[in-house]
Amino acid sequence: MLATNYGCTNLTSIEIPSSVTSLGEGCFYLTGLKSVKIPSSITSLSTDCFQFCSSLESVEIPSSVTSFGEYCFYGCSKLESIDIPSSVTSLGIGCFTQCSYLEKVVIPSSITSLSTNCFWGCSGLKNIEIPSSVTSLGGGCFLGCSSLESIIIPSSVEEMGGLIFYGCNLLKSVYFKGKLPKYLTTYCNAPTDCSFYVPRPYLQEYIDAIGSKYSSIYPWDGGVVIVRAKSYSRVYGDENPVFELDLGGSSLEGVPELLCTANATSQVGTYTIEVRKGTIKNEDVLFENGSLTITKAPLTISVGNYTKKQGDAMPTFKASYTGFKNGEDESVLIKQPVFETTATAESAPGEYPITVYGVEADNYEVKRYIAGTLTVEEGVTDISHIEQLCDKAAWYTLQGVKLSDKPSMPGVYIHQGRKVIVR
Q1: β partners of residue 361
Q2: Which of 58, 111, 277, 416 lies most in the core, judged by the most C-beta atoms within 10 Å?
Q3: How far apart are CA 37 and CA 57, in angstroms?
Q4: Which residues are 225's β-sheet partners?
Q5: Are 365 and 296 in contact (CB under 8 A)?
Q6: Over the stretch 176-210, which tens digit does the pLDDT of each residue have?
Q7: How far apart are CA 36 and CA 25, in angstroms?
Q8: 86: pLDDT confidence band, cut at 50, 70 and 90?
């Protein structure tokens, strides 16, 4: 027997020899294991075997294993998928509790029950197929599976424990293929807006059992095809992705139709991907729409570089943009750019940074602002030089700035090539 390695966080890998025939309770509890291969000499995974192995990503289990002990993968938060061999006939209480990354698990037909809290806290689990060999679902079996959207309960299930769907906040549809399972009550704790689809002959039994809390209980014939549109996300201005489907239930005959009103010019937001019957020949088909989320497109804004003489008026700063879609320009901005620099018209010669900020838009998000530089060169101060350049009839400041008319403010100006005092 392989003894405990409790708390060996530096233990990231191990080769278990074929001479080992059993794993002690809590054998790898709280270790740093990332992957492990179980030899075929092992016939069961012990209680707490890999509990809190938070770095464990993959486990290879041989067909010699027939049972998983209680809480054997409790807290293996990075375990994304696991293949349970068909030799396994029992899953212990809380077997996959808090495996928050677990997205995919295939339950073999050798399993006859899902234990209490079996998938408690598996917040990444979106879909799970329960084989027709399963006859009971333990209390809290899917408690806290906050990503689970729909589930089919086979007709083989005869009893269900309480709190089975507690915390399954996204659960929208539960499909029952058989008679009302024993102990199914409103304490199953599915969301109140969840829809239940039940065999037509047993509709009233289900209404009597859970109808006081759940108003959406509908009849179906058990051989239902479930057609789900996948959900997507893309950036504003991009083309739509190729929409695809997830299928569940019975075999599908024909091709469904997918429709979405969004196109490359559609505004940022969420749009429904609608599933329609198309050429489907099946009589009992349940359609579940998906969604397309359009996010803001990234925008880069730069201000550029400018040059002026000391004493000259400040230039007008303009922004350049990279990232506009659909032939758009700055006219679509809700808030135009704001420019700032420490330089003024009279600033001494030198280089001054120009910053830009403050842009807002419905369909764009500024990811980067690129500053510019204002270079101030030495101004013209020699009057003879001004005389050579100036319009004799015009008025100028001593710095050589041409005025539009005779100045009204007192001061010394240049006019007709001479200094003139205006009082």
Answers
A1: 333
A2: 111
A3: 12
A4: 249, 285
A5: yes
A6: 988 899 999 989 999 999 999 988 778 999 999 99
A7: 17
A8: very high
Name the nearest CA neighbour of 198 among 211, 188, 189.
211
At 386, the pLDDT band (50, 70, 90 cuts) reads: low
pLDDT of 115 reads: 95
Residue 416: per-residue pLDDT: 82
Rounded average pLDDT over 146-174: 93
Amino acid at 25: E
User: How far is 423 from 415, CA to CA, in rounded Å?
Assistant: 14
User: How many residues in total does the chain contain?
Assistant: 423
